[in-house]
Amino acid sequence: MSSLLEKIPIIRDKALQAIGSAETAPDLEKIRVEFLGTKGRLPELTRQVGTLPAEMRPAAGQAANKALKEVKEAFLNAQTVLNRAKSQKSALDVTLPGRRPTLGHQHLISRTMSEICRIFEKLGFTVVEGPEVETDYYNFEALNFPADHPSRDMQESLFVGDKLLLRTHTSPVQIRTMEKQSPPVWVVAPGKTYRRDDDITHSPMFHQVEGLVVDKGITMTDLKGILSAFATAFFSPDTAIRLRPSFFPFTEPSAEVDIACVLCGGRGCRLCKGSGWLELLGSGMVDPALYNFVGYDPREISGFAFGLGVDRAAMLKYGLSNIRHLYEGDLRFLEQF
Ligand code: PHE
Question: CA separation (Å) from 64 to 14, 20, 39, 49, 284?
Fold first, then answer.
Protein backbone atom coordinates (compact mmCIF):
# COMPACT_ATOMS: atom_id res chain seq x y z
CA MET A 1 0.00 0.00 0.00
CA SER A 2 2.94 2.27 0.42
CA SER A 3 2.94 2.46 -3.34
CA LEU A 4 -0.30 4.53 -3.51
CA LEU A 5 1.65 7.72 -2.85
CA GLU A 6 4.00 6.74 -5.68
CA LYS A 7 1.22 5.60 -7.99
CA ILE A 8 -0.61 8.96 -7.86
CA PRO A 9 2.00 10.99 -9.79
CA ILE A 10 2.54 8.17 -12.26
CA ILE A 11 -1.13 8.00 -13.21
CA ARG A 12 -1.37 11.81 -13.17
CA ASP A 13 1.53 12.00 -15.65
CA LYS A 14 -0.03 9.37 -17.87
CA ALA A 15 -3.25 11.34 -17.90
CA LEU A 16 -1.46 14.63 -18.66
CA GLN A 17 0.48 13.04 -21.44
CA ALA A 18 -2.61 11.48 -23.01
CA ILE A 19 -4.43 14.79 -22.81
CA GLY A 20 -1.47 16.55 -24.39
CA SER A 21 -1.50 14.22 -27.37
CA ALA A 22 -5.30 14.13 -27.98
CA GLU A 23 -6.02 15.48 -31.45
CA THR A 24 -9.77 15.27 -31.66
CA ALA A 25 -12.71 15.85 -29.34
CA PRO A 26 -13.67 12.13 -29.30
CA ASP A 27 -10.06 11.20 -28.36
CA LEU A 28 -10.17 13.67 -25.53
CA GLU A 29 -13.51 12.33 -24.37
CA LYS A 30 -12.10 8.78 -24.19
CA ILE A 31 -9.24 10.06 -22.05
CA ARG A 32 -11.65 11.90 -19.78
CA VAL A 33 -13.67 8.71 -19.22
CA GLU A 34 -10.51 6.67 -18.56
CA PHE A 35 -8.98 9.03 -16.04
CA LEU A 36 -11.73 11.31 -14.68
CA GLY A 37 -14.95 9.33 -15.16
CA THR A 38 -16.83 7.98 -12.10
CA LYS A 39 -15.06 4.66 -12.57
CA GLY A 40 -11.92 6.38 -13.88
CA ARG A 41 -8.41 5.80 -12.63
CA LEU A 42 -7.99 9.01 -10.63
CA PRO A 43 -11.30 8.76 -8.69
CA GLU A 44 -10.34 5.14 -8.04
CA LEU A 45 -7.08 6.31 -6.39
CA THR A 46 -9.06 8.73 -4.24
CA ARG A 47 -11.28 5.87 -3.12
CA GLN A 48 -8.22 3.81 -2.24
CA VAL A 49 -7.02 6.57 0.09
CA GLY A 50 -9.82 5.54 2.42
CA THR A 51 -8.32 2.08 2.80
CA LEU A 52 -4.96 3.38 4.02
CA PRO A 53 -3.94 3.39 7.69
CA ALA A 54 -5.16 6.59 9.33
CA GLU A 55 -1.73 8.21 9.61
CA MET A 56 -1.06 7.88 5.89
CA ARG A 57 -4.42 9.21 4.72
CA PRO A 58 -3.83 12.99 4.92
CA ALA A 59 -0.72 12.96 2.71
CA ALA A 60 -2.17 10.52 0.20
CA GLY A 61 -5.52 12.33 0.16
CA GLN A 62 -3.85 15.65 -0.54
CA ALA A 63 -1.75 14.17 -3.31
CA ALA A 64 -4.79 12.48 -4.90
CA ASN A 65 -6.86 15.68 -4.79
CA LYS A 66 -4.03 17.72 -6.24
CA ALA A 67 -3.54 15.23 -9.08
CA LEU A 68 -7.28 15.21 -9.81
CA LYS A 69 -7.34 18.98 -9.92
CA GLU A 70 -4.35 19.20 -12.26
CA VAL A 71 -5.75 16.64 -14.67
CA LYS A 72 -9.17 18.33 -14.70
CA GLU A 73 -7.56 21.65 -15.52
CA ALA A 74 -5.46 20.14 -18.29
CA PHE A 75 -8.56 18.48 -19.68
CA LEU A 76 -10.56 21.75 -19.74
CA ASN A 77 -7.70 23.60 -21.42
CA ALA A 78 -7.34 20.95 -24.07
CA GLN A 79 -11.06 21.02 -24.68
CA THR A 80 -11.01 24.81 -25.20
CA VAL A 81 -8.09 24.57 -27.58
CA LEU A 82 -9.74 21.84 -29.65
CA ASN A 83 -13.04 23.74 -29.86
CA ARG A 84 -11.33 26.91 -30.97
CA ALA A 85 -9.37 25.08 -33.63
CA LYS A 86 -12.57 23.47 -34.86
CA SER A 87 -14.45 26.77 -35.29
CA GLN A 88 -11.47 28.44 -36.92
CA LYS A 89 -11.23 25.61 -39.33
CA SER A 90 -14.87 25.92 -40.44
CA ALA A 91 -14.63 29.72 -40.74
CA LEU A 92 -11.77 29.27 -43.16
CA ASP A 93 -13.06 26.27 -45.06
CA VAL A 94 -12.54 27.39 -48.65
CA THR A 95 -14.35 24.34 -49.96
CA LEU A 96 -17.71 25.47 -48.52
CA PRO A 97 -20.13 26.96 -51.10
CA GLY A 98 -20.10 30.76 -51.02
CA ARG A 99 -22.92 32.74 -49.41
CA ARG A 100 -24.71 34.78 -52.03
CA PRO A 101 -25.52 38.31 -50.84
CA THR A 102 -29.28 38.80 -51.19
CA LEU A 103 -30.01 41.71 -53.50
CA GLY A 104 -33.38 43.43 -53.24
CA HIS A 105 -35.24 45.04 -56.10
CA GLN A 106 -38.11 47.42 -56.70
CA HIS A 107 -41.61 46.15 -55.98
CA LEU A 108 -43.65 45.49 -59.11
CA ILE A 109 -45.89 48.48 -58.36
CA SER A 110 -42.98 50.91 -57.87
CA ARG A 111 -41.42 49.58 -61.02
CA THR A 112 -44.61 49.94 -63.05
CA MET A 113 -45.14 53.43 -61.67
CA SER A 114 -41.66 54.61 -62.65
CA GLU A 115 -41.99 52.90 -66.03
CA ILE A 116 -45.22 54.84 -66.68
CA CYS A 117 -43.67 58.12 -65.56
CA ARG A 118 -40.59 57.55 -67.71
CA ILE A 119 -42.77 57.10 -70.81
CA PHE A 120 -44.58 60.39 -70.12
CA GLU A 121 -41.32 62.17 -69.34
CA LYS A 122 -40.11 61.20 -72.81
CA LEU A 123 -43.31 62.78 -74.16
CA GLY A 124 -42.45 66.07 -72.44
CA PHE A 125 -44.26 65.69 -69.10
CA THR A 126 -42.86 66.63 -65.68
CA VAL A 127 -43.50 64.46 -62.59
CA VAL A 128 -45.22 66.20 -59.64
CA GLU A 129 -46.74 64.92 -56.40
CA GLY A 130 -49.47 65.81 -53.92
CA PRO A 131 -50.51 64.77 -50.40
CA GLU A 132 -52.37 61.53 -49.66
CA VAL A 133 -54.49 63.13 -46.94
CA GLU A 134 -56.58 65.68 -48.78
CA THR A 135 -59.19 68.27 -48.00
CA ASP A 136 -62.70 68.07 -49.34
CA TYR A 137 -61.84 71.17 -51.36
CA TYR A 138 -59.09 69.59 -53.46
CA ASN A 139 -60.54 66.09 -53.65
CA PHE A 140 -64.07 67.23 -54.59
CA GLU A 141 -65.08 70.87 -54.54
CA ALA A 142 -62.46 72.42 -56.83
CA LEU A 143 -62.90 69.41 -59.13
CA ASN A 144 -66.47 70.50 -59.70
CA PHE A 145 -68.15 67.94 -57.44
CA PRO A 146 -70.98 70.09 -56.05
CA ALA A 147 -71.63 69.74 -52.29
CA ASP A 148 -74.05 66.86 -51.53
CA HIS A 149 -74.05 65.96 -55.20
CA PRO A 150 -74.56 62.24 -55.93
CA SER A 151 -71.42 62.21 -58.09
CA ARG A 152 -69.47 62.09 -54.80
CA ASP A 153 -70.94 58.62 -54.29
CA MET A 154 -68.91 57.41 -57.28
CA GLN A 155 -66.02 57.41 -54.86
CA GLU A 156 -66.17 55.27 -51.75
CA SER A 157 -64.36 57.80 -49.60
CA LEU A 158 -62.41 57.12 -46.42
CA PHE A 159 -62.69 60.17 -44.16
CA VAL A 160 -60.14 60.89 -41.45
CA GLY A 161 -61.69 64.12 -40.22
CA ASP A 162 -64.53 66.53 -40.83
CA LYS A 163 -63.47 67.80 -44.25
CA LEU A 164 -60.36 65.64 -44.43
CA LEU A 165 -60.05 62.35 -46.28
CA LEU A 166 -57.61 59.91 -47.85
CA ARG A 167 -57.64 61.08 -51.45
CA THR A 168 -59.90 58.92 -53.58
CA HIS A 169 -57.97 59.76 -56.75
CA THR A 170 -54.88 61.69 -57.85
CA SER A 171 -57.03 64.35 -59.54
CA PRO A 172 -56.61 66.84 -56.63
CA VAL A 173 -53.03 67.21 -57.86
CA GLN A 174 -54.51 68.82 -61.00
CA ILE A 175 -55.83 71.70 -58.89
CA ARG A 176 -52.70 71.96 -56.73
CA THR A 177 -50.53 72.11 -59.86
CA MET A 178 -52.63 74.75 -61.61
CA GLU A 179 -52.69 76.86 -58.43
CA LYS A 180 -48.90 76.84 -58.42
CA GLN A 181 -48.05 77.39 -62.06
CA SER A 182 -49.54 79.03 -65.12
CA PRO A 183 -49.90 77.33 -68.53
CA PRO A 184 -48.36 75.57 -70.31
CA VAL A 185 -48.83 72.61 -67.93
CA TRP A 186 -47.65 69.12 -68.88
CA VAL A 187 -47.52 67.03 -65.71
CA VAL A 188 -48.04 63.49 -64.47
CA ALA A 189 -48.71 62.83 -60.77
CA PRO A 190 -48.10 59.28 -59.51
CA GLY A 191 -49.24 58.20 -56.06
CA LYS A 192 -51.34 56.20 -53.64
CA THR A 193 -55.11 56.52 -53.61
CA TYR A 194 -57.76 55.09 -51.27
CA ARG A 195 -61.33 53.85 -51.53
CA ARG A 196 -63.65 51.67 -49.46
CA ASP A 197 -63.38 48.83 -51.92
CA ASP A 198 -61.96 45.32 -51.57
CA ASP A 199 -62.25 42.36 -53.95
CA ILE A 200 -60.06 40.45 -56.36
CA THR A 201 -59.51 43.44 -58.62
CA HIS A 202 -59.84 46.22 -56.00
CA SER A 203 -57.68 47.02 -53.00
CA PRO A 204 -58.59 49.77 -50.47
CA MET A 205 -55.20 51.33 -51.21
CA PHE A 206 -54.19 51.44 -54.84
CA HIS A 207 -52.12 53.57 -57.19
CA GLN A 208 -52.86 56.04 -59.93
CA VAL A 209 -50.90 58.18 -62.32
CA GLU A 210 -52.73 61.40 -63.08
CA GLY A 211 -52.00 63.32 -66.23
CA LEU A 212 -52.78 66.96 -66.93
CA VAL A 213 -52.08 69.04 -70.01
CA VAL A 214 -53.19 72.67 -70.23
CA ASP A 215 -51.81 74.65 -73.13
CA LYS A 216 -52.86 76.75 -76.13
CA GLY A 217 -55.08 74.92 -78.63
CA ILE A 218 -55.23 71.52 -76.90
CA THR A 219 -57.98 69.30 -78.31
CA MET A 220 -59.34 65.79 -77.98
CA THR A 221 -56.94 64.59 -80.70
CA ASP A 222 -54.02 65.51 -78.45
CA LEU A 223 -55.57 63.40 -75.72
CA LYS A 224 -55.99 60.46 -78.05
CA GLY A 225 -52.51 60.85 -79.57
CA ILE A 226 -50.73 61.02 -76.21
CA LEU A 227 -52.64 58.09 -74.73
CA SER A 228 -52.11 56.01 -77.83
CA ALA A 229 -48.37 56.74 -77.67
CA PHE A 230 -48.43 55.68 -74.04
CA ALA A 231 -50.33 52.42 -74.71
CA THR A 232 -47.95 51.34 -77.46
CA ALA A 233 -44.89 52.18 -75.32
CA PHE A 234 -46.22 50.48 -72.20
CA PHE A 235 -47.91 47.37 -73.60
CA SER A 236 -46.74 46.57 -77.13
CA PRO A 237 -46.12 48.54 -80.33
CA ASP A 238 -49.37 47.39 -81.93
CA THR A 239 -51.69 48.09 -78.99
CA ALA A 240 -54.83 49.85 -80.23
CA ILE A 241 -56.94 52.14 -78.02
CA ARG A 242 -60.53 53.30 -78.25
CA LEU A 243 -62.44 56.08 -76.51
CA ARG A 244 -65.88 55.49 -75.00
CA PRO A 245 -68.14 58.32 -73.78
CA SER A 246 -68.18 58.53 -70.01
CA PHE A 247 -68.74 60.98 -67.19
CA PHE A 248 -66.52 62.72 -64.66
CA PRO A 249 -67.48 65.99 -62.91
CA PHE A 250 -64.11 67.54 -63.78
CA THR A 251 -63.92 66.71 -67.50
CA GLU A 252 -66.26 67.57 -70.35
CA PRO A 253 -66.52 65.67 -72.57
CA SER A 254 -65.24 62.59 -70.72
CA ALA A 255 -64.00 59.34 -72.15
CA GLU A 256 -63.14 55.93 -70.82
CA VAL A 257 -60.07 54.66 -72.65
CA ASP A 258 -59.86 50.97 -73.53
CA ILE A 259 -56.93 49.06 -74.97
CA ALA A 260 -57.24 46.09 -77.32
CA CYS A 261 -57.25 42.97 -75.14
CA VAL A 262 -53.69 42.03 -74.15
CA LEU A 263 -54.60 38.35 -74.28
CA CYS A 264 -56.55 37.88 -77.54
CA GLY A 265 -55.54 41.08 -79.35
CA GLY A 266 -59.19 42.04 -79.95
CA ARG A 267 -60.79 38.79 -81.11
CA GLY A 268 -62.62 38.29 -77.84
CA CYS A 269 -61.75 35.98 -74.96
CA ARG A 270 -62.53 35.33 -71.29
CA LEU A 271 -60.30 38.15 -70.03
CA CYS A 272 -62.11 40.81 -72.12
CA LYS A 273 -65.45 39.02 -71.69
CA GLY A 274 -65.70 38.58 -75.42
CA SER A 275 -65.57 42.32 -76.17
CA GLY A 276 -61.98 42.46 -77.42
CA TRP A 277 -61.31 45.53 -75.24
CA LEU A 278 -60.06 46.19 -71.70
CA GLU A 279 -60.80 49.30 -69.68
CA LEU A 280 -57.59 51.13 -68.83
CA LEU A 281 -58.24 54.68 -67.68
CA GLY A 282 -60.60 57.62 -67.31
CA SER A 283 -59.97 60.83 -69.22
CA GLY A 284 -61.50 63.90 -70.78
CA MET A 285 -61.12 67.56 -71.67
CA VAL A 286 -60.61 69.65 -68.54
CA ASP A 287 -64.00 71.13 -67.60
CA PRO A 288 -63.60 74.93 -67.89
CA ALA A 289 -65.34 75.19 -64.50
CA LEU A 290 -62.02 74.10 -62.94
CA TYR A 291 -60.21 77.11 -64.41
CA ASN A 292 -62.37 79.42 -62.27
CA PHE A 293 -60.95 77.81 -59.12
CA VAL A 294 -57.33 78.39 -60.17
CA GLY A 295 -57.56 81.67 -62.06
CA TYR A 296 -56.87 80.39 -65.58
CA ASP A 297 -58.57 82.11 -68.52
CA PRO A 298 -60.54 79.49 -70.51
CA ARG A 299 -60.55 81.76 -73.57
CA GLU A 300 -56.78 81.39 -73.86
CA ILE A 301 -56.13 77.76 -73.06
CA SER A 302 -57.69 74.34 -73.04
CA GLY A 303 -56.57 71.01 -71.71
CA PHE A 304 -57.09 67.34 -71.11
CA ALA A 305 -56.60 65.09 -68.13
CA PHE A 306 -56.48 61.38 -67.47
CA GLY A 307 -56.23 59.05 -64.50
CA LEU A 308 -54.57 55.69 -64.95
CA GLY A 309 -54.89 52.79 -62.51
CA VAL A 310 -51.35 51.53 -61.95
CA ASP A 311 -52.36 48.29 -60.23
CA ARG A 312 -54.72 47.50 -63.06
CA ALA A 313 -52.10 48.36 -65.68
CA ALA A 314 -49.60 46.05 -63.93
CA MET A 315 -52.18 43.26 -63.71
CA LEU A 316 -52.92 43.53 -67.45
CA LYS A 317 -49.29 43.80 -68.47
CA TYR A 318 -48.08 40.89 -66.32
CA GLY A 319 -51.22 38.75 -66.51
CA LEU A 320 -52.10 38.78 -62.79
CA SER A 321 -55.51 37.46 -61.84
CA ASN A 322 -55.65 38.70 -58.25
CA ILE A 323 -54.67 42.17 -57.05
CA ARG A 324 -53.75 40.70 -53.65
CA HIS A 325 -50.63 39.16 -55.13
CA LEU A 326 -49.32 42.72 -55.24
CA TYR A 327 -49.84 43.34 -51.53
CA GLU A 328 -49.20 40.05 -49.73
CA GLY A 329 -45.42 40.43 -49.82
CA ASP A 330 -44.96 36.78 -50.81
CA LEU A 331 -41.38 36.54 -52.08
CA ARG A 332 -42.21 33.55 -54.29
CA PHE A 333 -44.42 35.95 -56.26
CA LEU A 334 -42.34 39.12 -56.00
CA GLU A 335 -39.06 37.50 -57.00
CA GLN A 336 -40.47 36.63 -60.42
CA PHE A 337 -40.25 40.25 -61.48
N1 PHE B 1 -60.04 60.65 -61.23
C2 PHE B 1 -60.73 59.71 -62.06
C3 PHE B 1 -60.88 58.40 -61.28
O4 PHE B 1 -60.24 58.19 -60.32
C5 PHE B 1 -60.00 59.43 -63.33
C6 PHE B 1 -59.89 60.63 -64.21
C7 PHE B 1 -58.79 61.45 -64.12
C8 PHE B 1 -60.86 60.91 -65.16
C9 PHE B 1 -58.66 62.55 -64.96
C10 PHE B 1 -60.75 61.99 -65.99
C11 PHE B 1 -59.66 62.80 -65.88
O12 PHE B 1 -61.64 57.54 -61.65
Answer: 14, 20, 15, 8, 101
